[in-house]
Design brief:
It contains 7 helices and 19 strands. By secondary structure, the chain is of the alpha+beta class. Helix 3 packs across helix 4.
C-alpha cells in the first residue's frame, strides 16, 4: 500500500503587523512550514526569503498582503514564480484595483458591477442637485482616511480625490479566497446601517451570519463577489464591501484584494484555517457558517484565547453556538480591557437601540449598534448550524479602539 504523500511545506510571507498575535491560530501548520514577518515597507529583505527557498525549493509561498504592500508583494510573487516556485500573491490587476479608487470605479463600470455613481473632481456637479449628498474619498486612501460626506453644492474635490453619490442602507462584506484550484466564498458579514457621519464599519458591531438576510440577497452578494474575484484574476484573499439600499438594490462600495478586517470574523464563523486554504483539495464552493460570530471595537492589550474562540487586536472577535454566547464573551473581553487599563469595573450605561434595518421583518431580531463602541492550532468552533439566531445586543461598554 502506497503511503500518502505529505503536502509541500509553506513559506508564509506576512506583511500586516496586526496579524502577529492571531495568525498562528488560523494556520494549518505542517512539517517544514515557516512564517516570515516582512512588514509593509516598499522594499523587502530578500536574504531570509532566499535562504528559506534554498532550504526547500518545493515550498509553496503564500503572501499575506496589507494595503501598503500590495504592489511590492505582486512583484515579489512574480519573482518567486520565475524561480519555479508556486506563489500565491496579488495579481497585477488586483493591485491596480486595490490601490487606486479611481481605477477601482472604472473597473466596476467596465465590467458592469453595480456601484454608486461617481465622478472625478471636474465632473462632480453632474452627480445631482446642490442638496444631494456625496461622499468624497482619497484615490489612494484606506481605512476611511480623508473620507467625508458633503452637500454637493458645497463639495470641494481636491486633486487626488473622487466623489460618489451617498447611498443610505445596510453595509455587508463578503470574503473570497481564490487560487489556481480553489474558489471559496464566505458568508456575508452584516456591518450595520450607513450613517450621515460616516462612522466606519470597523467602529460598529459586526456579525456573521446575518439571521435576517434573505437567501436571494445572500446569493446576490456571493455571486458578485465571486465574479469580481474572477474579473481581477484574484490570487489570494479578497474583501468585497457592499451597501444594500431600502429598495433591496445591491451596490459594491469597494474591494480590498488583501488581508482585511472582516476576515477573522468570517473565519471564526465558518471554522476555517483562513490562511491555509491553499492546502484544501481542489474545490469551488460557498462556505457556510457553523457558529455565530460577532466583534466590536477594542483598545485593550492584544490577546488570543483559541479555546474560547476569542481574539483581540483593534477589535475583539468572539464566536459561540448562539449570538447570546458570543455576546457574553465580548462583554468579558471588554471588562478585561477596562481592568487592564485600571478603569472602574462599574458597568457603563446601556447602548441606545439602533434603527430597524430595511431588510424584511422576520422572527429574529437585529442587535443594537455598539455602545459607542501564540500557540499553534486554533480549535474548530462548535459544529452545527446556528441555533435560534438573534444578533447580540451590544456589550455595555464604550468603544475603545480604532482599526488596525
Amino acid at each position: 500500500m502506497t503511503a500518502a504523500v505529505p503536502p509541500p511545506a509553506t513559506l508564509y510571507l506576512v506583511a500586516p503587523r496586526s496579524l502577529r498575535s492571531w495568525l498562528p491560530h488560523f494556520l494549518d501548520e505542517g512539517d517544514g512550514d515557516e512564517v516570515l514577518h516582512v512588514g509593509e515597507q516598499p522594499r523587502v529583505d530578500l536574504a531570509p526569503i532566499l535562504r528559506a527557498v534554498d532550504a526547500d525549493p518545493h515550498r509553496v509561498c503564500v503572501l499575506l498582503s496589507g494595503h501598503d504592500s500590495l504592489e511590492r508583494d505582486s512583484r515579489l510573487a512574480a519573482a518567486l514564480r520565475r524561480l519555479g516556485l508556486r506563489a500565491i500573491g496579488p495579481s497585477p490587476e488586483s493591485v491596480r484595483v486595490g490601490t487606486d479608487k479611481e481605477h477601482m470605479k472604472d473597473f466596476f463600470d467596465r465590467h458592469g458591477f453595480p456601484s454608486p455613481r461617481w465622478a472625478r473632481a471636474s465632473g462632480a456637479a453632474a452627480l445631482g442637485g446642490p442638496d444631494d449628498a456625496v461622499v468624497v474619498k482619497r484615490r489612494a486612501g484606506t481605512q476611511s482616511a480623508g473620507t467625508r460626506r458633503e452637500r454637493l453644492g458645497d463639495c470641494s474635490v481636491a486633486p487626488g480625490e473622487l466623489c460618489e453619490v451617498y447611498t443610505d442602507g445596510v453595509e455587508y462584506s463578503v470574503t473570497v479566497y481564490r487560487d489556481e484550484e480553489r474558489e471559496l466564498v464566505f458568508p456575508p458579514i452584516w456591518k450595520g446601517r450607513t450613517t450621515a457621519t460616516l462612522v466606519p464599519p470597523w467602529m460598529r458591531l459586526r456579525v456573521c451570519p446575518d439571521p435576517l438576510l434573505t437567501p436571494g440577497r445572500e446569493e446576490a452578494l456571493r455571486t458578485i463577489a465571486r465574479e469580481l474575484a474572477r474579473a481581477m484574476d484574484l490570487c489570494g484573499h479578497l474583501e468585497v464591501e457592499y451597501v444594500v439600499g431600502a429598495d433591496g438594490a445591491v451596490q459594491v462600495l469597494e474591494v480590498n484584494p488583501r488581508v482585511a478586517g472582516t476576515m477573522r470574523l468570517a473565519a471564526s464563523a465558518t471554522g476555517t484555517r483562513l490562511f491555509s486554504l491553499h492546502r484544501l483539495p481542489a474545490v469551488r464552493a460557498d462556505l457556510q457558517a457553523v457558529c455565530c460570530a460577532a466583534e466590536v471595537p477594542y483598545s485593550g492589550p492584544p490577546f488570543s484565547d483559541p479555546a474560547e474562540g476569542v481574539f483581540a487586536t483593534s477589535r475583539v472577535t468572539a464566536c459561540g453556538p448562539t449570538f447570546a454566547v458570543a455576546r457574553r464573551k465580548l462583554e468579558r473581553a471588554l471588562s478585561r480591557a477596562r481592568v487592564a487599563a485600571g478603569a472602574s469595573a462599574r458597568p457603563a450605561p446601556a447602548a441606545p437601540r439602533r434603527p430597524a434595518s430595511p431588510a424584511p421583518p422576520g422572527s429574529a431580531r437585529r442587535p443594537a449598534s455598539p455602545a459607542g463602541s501564540g500557540s499553534a492550532h486554533r480549535p474548530a468552533p462548535p459544529a452545527g448550524p446556528p441555533r435560534a439566531p438573534r444578533r447580540p445586543a451590544s456589550p455595555a461598554a464604550p468603544p475603545v479602539g480604532a482599526a488596525a
